[in-house]
Structures are given as C-alpha cells and as structure tokens.
Amino acid sequence: MSLPQTLGELKAIGYRTRPVKNEIRDNLVNILRGGDGLFTHKDDKGKVISRVVGYEETVMPQITNALLARHNVILLGLRGQAKSRIMRELTALLDELIPIIAGSEINDDPFKPISAYGKQIVKEKGDKTPLAWIDRGARYVEKLATPDVTIADIIGDVDPIKAAHGGRLLSDELTIHYGLLPRANRGIFAINELPDLAGKIQVGLFNIMQEGDVQIKGYPVRLPLDVLLVFSANPEDYTARGKIITPLKDRIGAEIHTHYPDSIKQGVKITKGEAWVRRYTDAYDAKWEKVQIPQAIREVIEQIAFIAREDKRIDKRSGVSQRLPITVLELAFSNAERRSIATNDYWITPRVSDVYAAIPAITGKIELEYEGEQIGAERIARDLIRKACGEVFGAHYAGIDFRPVLDHFNLGNTLTLSDMTSDREALDELLSVKGLIEAVRGRIKEESDGAIVSACELALEGLYAQKKLARTEERGDVSYGRATPERPSRKQAFDDWTGGRLN
Length: 503
Hints:
Elements (H helix, E strand, L loop, with lengths): L6 H6 L7 H14 L6 E3 L5 E3 L8 H10 L4 E4 L6 H7 L7 E5 L14 H10 L5 E5 L4 E5 L6 H4 L1 E3 L1 H7 L9 E3 L1 H4 L3 E6 L6 H5 L2 H5 L16 E7 L3 H4 L5 H5 L3 E4 L6 H11 L20 H16 L12 H21 L8 H6 L1 H5 L6 H6 L1 H20 L6 H8 L4 E4 L4 H9 L4 H6 L7 H17 L3 E6 L2 E6 L7 H9 L5
Parallel strand pairs: 3-10, 3-11, 6-9, 9-10
Antiparallel strand pairs: 1-2, 4-5, 7-8, 12-14, 13-14
C-alpha cells in the first residue's frame, strides 16, 4: 500500500496525528496489553529478550510509569549504567512512519503546522500540500551537553545568509535557523550529561517544558513544540562540574535512578550480550570457529568490577563502569585468540593469564583515591584479579581436597606457565602437579585441553589468593611454588611469645 503524498490524500484515508507523548503512551499500552515489557523483543524461537538487562524489576517499571503519565524524564546514575541506551531505545515506542510537510525543518504536522514555512505552504496549496514520511529514527535528536553549547545550538538563531538569499528582512520568521530542539518537534529530544549545560542554556528549556513553546532572539514567535524531553546526569556532576538549576529540575516529571548489576549472574549476562567475542564467520577459515569461554572465567571478569566498586582505594563517586568487564573480556579473548593463532590450537579458550593480559582495560576504567594513587593503578588491577579469582575459586571448587596439590609444591616443586603456551604443552606441564587435574576435572563441562588448562589455572590462582601458594611473574611467565609464611609484626610476635597475657 502506497503512502499518501498530499494533504488531501491523507485526509481521504481518515489519518489523524497525535501528540508525541500520547503516541508513545498508546504504543506502550499496546505493548503491555500484549504481555510484553518495555524494551523487549522476541527472537526467532519466540523467547522474550530484554534489550536492557538488569532493570526489569527496578528501573523499567519507573520509566513505564513516567511514560504512561506523559512525563519528561531524567535518568540519574553513575557512568556505564546504560542511560544513553535507554534514551535511544525509547524510539521503539514511536510510530514506524509519520507524515510531515515536505521541506519542513521542524517536522511540521500537515494538519497543524507551527512554522512560518509550514503555514505558508498549507495556505498556498491546501489539499495539494506535498508530504514526506519520516521514520522513528529521524525523530530522535540527542545532544551531549558541554560548556560551549549555546542557545543557538539548542533553540536557534537568525541566519543572515538565509535572509540575504531569500531577499527577506532579518525580522522575518523565515530567516530563522532552527536549533536542535525545534528540529526534534514531534519526536524525542535527549540531552546527555545535563549538568554540563550552562545555566543560561538550561533556562532556555523552561518555556518548552512549562508553556510548550520557545522564543528565538526576542522574536514575537511562538513555536508550540511537541516533544518528549529526556535527560541524563551523573550524581558526581552536581559538585564536580556543574549542576541542574532548581527551576529546571522542578519541571522534570520523573527522576529515575539507574544502578549497576545486582548480582554476578546478571552482570555476566550483560557482558555476554555486549562483548565482541563472536569474531569468526563463514568468511574465515573454519579452523578458527571453535570458541569456548568457561563460565568461571566470565565470573572472574565480572567479579573484578564488583570488587572494584567496593574497594576503598577506588573513587566510588566516579563509579566503575559496566564497560570494565566488557572490555576486559574482549582483551582477554584477544590474548587467547593471539595464542591460538601462534600455537595453531583448534580452540580459543581464555584462561586466568589472559585476564592478567587485559589489565590495560582495568587501569583505564578506574579513578583512584589518594591511597590508590600511591599504590598505582596496575598494582591495584592485579590485586582485583587476585581477589576475583579467590571468590570464584571458593564458589566453584568448594569441597575439593587440594592437599595433594599443596603437598606437591611444599616439597619444593615449582610450575611455570606462559600465556603463550599452547593448550597441549600447558596440559603436559600441569600433569606434573600431582592431583591437580583430577581435582578440577569434575567441575568443568568441557573436556578440551583448553578448558582443563583454564580450570587448572583458576585453581592455582585461587590457592594463591588464599595465600596457600606463592606466585611470581616475569615477562609473561608465571611461576607457582610453596607459599612463604608472612613475617609477623612485632606486636604479633610479642603476643605470641607472651600468649597475649600482657594485653
């Protein structure tokens, strides 16, 4: 069916336009009545999949309520909490196509034009007014707030060149060059990091939120814009860089707080969906299509972020973005990929040593407090990996007797592995550690060499995290050996000698 191309044809089919907030509300109601949730879709098998994971019971209900109430919204949360993604996903609630007056810069409604251009065209051509149809993607306008943003950028300004070319006076409304906000008419206008917007620019948003119109350069021009306004902000911004002025904040209908994943399982699911690890297609040699990422390695990577968010050496106000585990997984996979290419291994299987190779993804994602700066980002990153391995080791290998392994090292034996050692060679080295492979074999699903090596490395790292083994590293080679007892403090030694009787 062809779409109407003139206003008369549009009237003939009985088409009616709706305010954008009503349109979003109506489409959302239809989704909810169909049994689906906000930002979900069904895959080929009919399974419901959420496009924003982790907010199903917290943030999504609040956003749904705000949209049903036709409110403007601000998303408040630390970095890496999917605020921008949520704003962009709102376009799914818009109609697939809507008609506008052809040539209109601000998506004029053919039934109710608001610009001088739109009114003039309808007056001159009537039912023969030409139409254009725009999709939902063209109705979303996003701006990253920076201190150099001007009123002209957001609202608009007089364009002398347009006046000269058209032979018009500067006072003519047709000489106006519209900013981003008017161009978002009949759509969604999003501002990222709202506190970074200068106060006088925030004031410029008042009229559109309260009265539904804007004024440009003192012109007696009223543009009753039809937009849904969505903002994002980081709590740190209120004190570090700027603030949301009170009158503007008062006019935002709903303030919704985002958060990091509540559980490791939830975090793993998010990272699994975002990390780029499906790198091989039929266009490549089929040899390199065998990829396996052990669940334990996924949990180690996710645990790093969870531990970092509680570490006193890391700035909590800045937050630890969910991008950290995503980029760590990608770099760890890249190191495993590089090894498989160099050693001609059939499988690409990340190990704990590959997680250590991804330290650059950690150091770039954490902001340190004073204490942390004295230690250094790389040392803290290694400490985070060690603790994460200890947590996952305790969860996956609980109840396993590792005494034969510890006895092997207590006899003075050592084991040296490299992150570039092939799976087969690494397995041969691990076979020399009595009881190690037997201990972990029952806790892994895959029987490939790479999966066994990865499980063994995790076990060794877990024992190291529990201070039952010593670990040294030099130029990519990692050696495990007998743990050296920590030298007690003078107070501890004195208490041991006196039995604590003098305390």
